[in-house]
Amino acid sequence: MDYHSDRFKDYSLMVFKDDNLYAVLPANVKDGVVYSHQGLTYGSFVLQEKAKLLYAFEAFKALLKFLSSEGIQTLEIRNIPTFYNSLPADELSYFLFKAEAQLVKRDALMVIDTTHNLGFQKNRREGINKAIRNGLKIKVEDNFDSFWNEILIPNLTKKHGVKPVHSLEEIKLLASRFPENIKQVNVYKDDTIVAGTTVFLTKTTIHPQYVSGNSDKNAYGSLDLAYDFIINHFAKQKRYFDFNISSEENGTKLNSGLIFWKESCGARTFVADNYVVETVKYKTLDLNVL
Predict the structure, then answer these.
(1) 39-43 — which CB contacts under 8 Å span 24+ positions?
(2) Architecture of domain 118-234
(3) Residue 262's CB: how many other CB atoms inside 10 A?
(4) Does residue 251 surpass a pLDDT of 70?
(5) CA end-to-end span of the chain, whole Å?
C-alpha cells in the first residue's frame, strides 16, 4: 500500500494472539472515521488460516475496543466477497450482525464460476469468431505501456474525462513486485495493438482490473476474444472470474447494459457489502455461547 501512501493516511491494524499475528485490518483514517483501506479493492478484516470462530470474535472485539480508546467512534468496514476467500470465512458477517452494524452499501458483482461455466451466449461467440476472421492475435507480455498509453488512458479521457485509478508507473511497480499476480494481455491486429486488459490474479480469482479496446473493438470482436482468452488461460489455476461491480451509487442502481454483457459471458451475481459499526459496541458485544 506504500505506493499510494500520499493519498491515504494509513491506520492499518494488526491483532496478535500469544505474540503471533492473528488478524489484520488494512485501513486508513479520514475526518475521524476509520475505513477499510480505500486504496484497496477488497481490503478487510483478514484472519490467519488457523483462526477459529471464538478467538476470531475476541480479535474483532479487541479491534473495536482499541479504536474506541483512540477516540475513533466509527469504523466503515468492507466485507470481502466470499469467492475471494481460500477457506470458508464468514466470521465478519456474523460479528457485524452481533454488533448491530448498519449496511450502507451493497454492490452487485458479476462472476463466472469456472467449475460450472455456462459458456458464452451466441452473440459473444459471434464476436470471438469475428476476431478470428480478422486475424487478431493475443499475447501475454510485460508490455504495459502500449495498452495504457495508446488504448486505456485515451479512452477514459475521451469518454469519461477521468484517469485510471492507478498510474502506469504504479501498475509497473506493482507488477515488478508481484509478477505472478499482475499480467498484461494485449490483442493485436497485425502488429498494432487494438485492445488489452491488465489482469489481477489472486489465489482463487481472475480479475481484469482494466479492460479497453480501440474504436474498432465491435467490428473486430477484440474484447470478446480477450475475455474468452483470459477466462480459459487462467482457469486451470483459478476458480472464479470477477467482472467487477455492475451497480452504481452505493448499490442503489444497476447498470443494465453491463449486466446484460457480463451475463452473456456466463456470469452470475455475488454481492460486496460495506457496513458502519460504532466502536463503542465492544462494551456490549457478546456471542452468548451456550
Answers:
(1) 39/1, 39/4, 39/7, 39/8, 40/1, 42/78, 42/80, 42/81, 42/84, 42/272, 43/78
(2) 3-Layer(aba) Sandwich (3.40)
(3) 22
(4) yes
(5) 41
Rounded Cα distance, 210 and 148, in Å: 9
Q: Return the amino acid letter for 229.
A: F
Angstrom CA distances, 26 to 13, 148, 247, 272, stand at: 6, 28, 24, 17
For the chain, domain boundaries: 2-106+272-283, 118-234
CA atoms within 13 A on the CB side of 114: 21
Cα–Cα dist 66/13, whole Å? 10
Is the domain defined by 2-106+272-283 classed in CATH 3.40.630.30? yes
Q: pLDDT digits over 116-167, tens only?
A: 989 899 989 999 999 999 999 999 998 999 999 999 999 999 989 999 989 9
Please name the residue that has the C-alpha cell 492473528: 22
Longest dimension (CA), the chain: 68
> Measured on CA atoms in the order 192, 217, 137, 111, is the torsion positive or negative?
positive
C-alpha cell at 133: 476472421
Lookup: cell for 283: 462494551
Ordered DSSP codes for 100-135: TPEEEEEEEEEEEEGGG-----HHHHHHHHHHHHTT
